[in-house]
Write a structure and sequence with these properties.
Length: about 650
């Protein structure tokens, strides 16, 4: 479609619209209408002035997705449009790491230059083939004015909503028509996922908070009077130029496609790190869940040199890049000094890891004392660490942004834990921000973590970016009966199978795949661990969610070079997915290894039963992936 047809405008006495490079079409006198379509014309956004407010509508394939909704930056201040500009972009860029080795960035853009009483601003709207983004740039204002980046989302009453709930089971399904009946409205967190009656799906979130930390993370609520979801973030203006984050609406037919939608990355600020050669995603072993684990030869894991040597040896043997040393490696912290735990010689462990070619990541817990953040990252770098796992920083955007930048200055990866800021897109801007615990991280609380919770988080929480969920436990029987110091708070509540645990390490995308079990547990099931060993982490050429249904199942395929890895997970009922191998190349025979549940496997009663099989497949073959209750299925596919 010719770009000149994308914008339509009406001139009225209220405002004079200067259209650059576009045709003018006359509407009814009461209308002031801007219309912009996606490059493939499937997504359409209209913008109208109503009583001094800008009101948008969103369509997909000519179906109304979001009805008339206000978007504003200064409350109760009439908008006057001075002129509009338009542009289009179609480019491909390469992320440092991610779900794709190349990302296409294609959109049409409309810029409205506006005045708002004592302020001037731009409203920038980008329309992609699978969603939209809009942001304000406040170019000048009087000091002391309160800005409010306010957006309405006028959804259908029959729509069903889901969203994260911290370390609890995600909220949903919540029917929007029932919201006004609640005595206490639920807290809505980003990203929102909207399931429509006809089967399509939306996600509402934000991107590029890095450029606008003053606004804080997006805040949602339900307006019971207008019966619609709204987002609102307020800030005092000081007369300077200010940019808001992007408000983002993703539009997909399948819920799983929201997880691989690249609009949030395309809207993020490009990499601020000039030399990214030191940034390497990968897998890491982790000691926290292994404390008090007793091996067959009578060794008991703890916080000491010998325990860490065992982890490092296994990492070196299995080509695992990192070993993560979690809390309790130190007992006390004061500014400029750490008291290292008795029995641990950190310098000796660090040298041992270096000799074995394994990099170390070290935990820092702000609850234990203030080392001083200006010195913290330099200190970790001086210890020879390759990364920091940062705990208890709180939902503080500016603080977290500074921590990411300081860790980058000291060439440290950073893994944020304990209810972090959902910095969607930050992995493009600062690729050293490899993952975050914006989810329930396995064994913290069995009240929340069920097969259904995992599937929900894989389809909801994962939309905002890479997750540190710590999947991949193999000693499920021992964990369930309380053999670990840091196991479930309630015994015999961990519902999963070892095949499912292996699959989950692939389903959940992360720049740091954190493996929580002991080397001996993995060696005992070495043929199953092969799936985790062979797959890369964070360095994928292509990713697809093949099949997905909220609460029920998810099946994800990822490609590295010519090899495909497929992981599938089912809920407590179990079931079978017919997985079509139509993503393979024509005319090529592939070796395939299956890692799967057996007919006797059960997520609670017999979780460690599994089988490994091999065969030959080609494009068009259909694999019947049968999964036990709480079970899973894995495939490693490579050309003969």
């Amino acid at each position: 479609m010719n770009v000149s047809n994308l914008i339509k405008s009406k001139i009225t006495a209220f405002s004079f619209l200067l259209i650059i490079g576009f045709n003018i079409n006359i509407f009814a006198k009461e209308d002031i209408l801007q219309q912009i379509e996606s490059p493939d014309a499937s997504v359409n956004l209209t913008l109208k002035e109503v009583d001094g407010n800008l009101v948008y509508k969103l369509y997909k394939q000519e179906k109304l997705i979001v009805d008339a909704s206000v978007i504003s930056i200064l409350p109760n201040v009439p908008v006057k449009i001075i002129n509009t500009e338009t542009k289009s972009l179609n480019e491909t860029w390469k992320p440092v790491w991610g779900q794709f080795s190349e990302i296409r960035n294609e959109y049409n853009e409309l810029i409205l230059n506006i005045t708002l009483d004592k302020a001037t601003a731009k409203l920038i709207i980008r329309v992609f083939n699978d969603g939209i983004g809009f942001r304000y740039v406040i170019e000048g204002s009087e000091a002391g004015i309160e800005a409010d980046f306010f957006t309405e989302y006028n959804l259908k009453s029959t729509d069903v909503l889901y969203c994260p709930a911290g370390e609890n089971d995600p909220l949903g399904p919540l029917s929007l028509q029932d919201f006004s009946t609640y005595s206490k409205l639920p807290k809505l967190m980003t990203p929102l996922v909207i399931e429509r009656l006809e089967g399509s799906h939306l996600s509402i979130l934000e991107s590029d908070l890095y450029s606008a930390p003053e606004f804080g993370a997006i805040k949602f609520k339900f307006d019971p009077f207008k019966k619609r979801v709204v987002s609102s973030n307020k800030i005092k203006l000081e007369g300077r130029k200010l940019t808001t984050p992007w408000r983002v609406i993703l539009v997909e037919e399948k819920v799983g496609d929201l997880v691989t939608n690249t609009i949030p990355l395309n809207l993020a600020t490009p990499s601020e790190i000039e030399d990214t050669s030191w940034i390497k995603p990968g897998k890491t072993l982790w000691d926290w869940r292994v404390h008090d684990y007793v091996t067959a030869d009578g060794f008991t894991y703890g916080i000491n040199n010998e325990s860490y040597f065992r982890f490092i040896n296994f990492a070196a043997e299995k080509n695992i890049k990192y070993f993560l040393i979690d809390a309790n490696w130190y007992t006390k912290v004061t500014k400029g000094h750490f008291d290292v735990a008795d029995g641990l010689d950190l310098e000796k462990v660090s040298k041992y890891a270096e000799n074995k070619g394994v990099k170390l990541i070290l935990y820092y817990d702000r609850h234990k004392g203030d080392y001083g953040d200006n010195e913290l990252f330099q200190y970790f770098n001086s210890l020879g660490m390759s990364g920091i796992k940062y705990g208890f920083m709180g939902n503080n955007v500016s603080f977290s942004k500074d921590a990411i930048m300081k860790s980058a200055e000291n060439q440290l990866l950073v893994d944020f834990h304990d209810s972090p800021v959902p910095f969607t897109g930050i992995e493009r801007t600062f690729p050293n921000a490899v993952t975050r615990e914006y989810c329930h991280a396995q064994q913290d609380s069995r009240k929340a973590f069920t097969p259904e919770t995992f599937i929900k988080m894989a389809l909801i929480n994962a939309i905002q970016g890479p997750l540190d969920m710590n999947n991949g436990n193999f000693d499920l029987v021992g964990i369930n009966k309380g053999d670990r110091l840091k196991g479930p708070k309630k015994e015999n509540t961990y519902f999963s199978t070892v095949a499912s645990e292996a699959a989950r390490t692939l389903v959940i995308f992360s720049g740091l795949v954190c493996l929580p079990d002991a080397p001996e547990a993995y060696n005992k099931k070495a043929d199953l661990f092969e799936f985790i060993e062979k797959m890369p982490a964070g360095e994928w050429d292509d990713s697809k969610v093949l099949y997905s249904k909220m609460d029920s199942y998810i099946s994800t395929a990822r490609r590295h070079g010519e090899e495909w890895f497929v992981g599938s997970v089912y809920n407590k009922q179990g079931g079978t997915l017919d997985i079509e191998l139509d993503f393979l190349k024509d005319g090529v025979n592939y070796n395939i290894t299956y890692y799967e549940d057996t007919s006797e496997t059960h997520g609670m009663n017999n979780p460690e039963a599994y089988q490994v099989k091999s065969g030959i497949v080609k494009k068009g073959d259909v694999i019947k992936a049968k999964m036990a209750p709480g079970g899973g299925h894995c495939m490693w596919i490579r050309p003969q």
